[in-house]
What does this fold into?
Amino acid sequence: MKFIKNIKSKNLRALVIIFISILIIVAGIFNSALSGAGNLSSFGYSLISTVCPLGALEAMMAANTIIPRALLSLGVVVLLMVLVGRAFCAWVCPVPLLQRWFPGYKGKKDHPDNQQKTLDLPQSDSKPAGSGSRGYRIMRSIGFDSRYVVLAGALVSTAAFGFPVFCLVCPVGLVFATIFTIFRLFAFGELTVTLLAFPLILILELVVFRKWCTKICPLGALISLIASVNRFFRINWDKSKCLEVTEGTLCSLCHKACSRENVDPRGKVLATNDLNSCTKCRECVDACPSKAISFPFLPKHKEK
It folds into this structure.
């Protein structure tokens, strides 16, 4: 337990993602057809299954009917999202981790000297340009971003073509499809065009579309909509410990740590997204020098 407490959140998330991925891969490999165990988009055993919520919606729209098993699975996933919010995006989805391993990733320097320089720099809490407009306030209140447009497009295309179109390019499914395709090549000598197509599409999404998670992913948009009712394991900002409040020190380390989702644990308008967009990655916890940020089961202090 001491090891877990001392390890940085980003490294702990990487270990969790790798463990879950290996578990799914091993389950798939030991299944004779490599399909019964499924992958992260749809996996289970016998009558017990969990399906990607977007995949479940698309499947029912494509079939133009209610599929009891998909509906039940969707209900289970929705309950999990209500409980843990967008944690899937940070702790389960392999896409952010894979992007860190590809060229072009700009990681944050964690050296104490760099953190101190950031702490001492004068910073402004001024509102973003255009933040006074009613349109901006409406978009901010509902967490609007381009992913909702892609989500709508995915659902409309599914209804139009009678097929879950997004599933063909979903990076989560492509990760495991690539792995299983490579395994089948060595295990059964199966050489198909998918052996080249799957990795190429995946690499294109990881390298070219660097902002896939924050600007494109329709699954992330759907999760955000469901997670808007989440009230558990939310960011808790303790003013009595915050250096800005207690010492008047200019500090935005917690906000800077959330470079992907651009959420400010203090609830300031400097961030483009509100606290509902938090993926609970806990990097703000690691970044805070006074330990003023936490993720209790229920918030102890009122969020601003």
Remarks:
- The longest helix spans residues 9-29.
- Strands lie at 38-39, 42-45, 48-51, 236-237, 293-294.
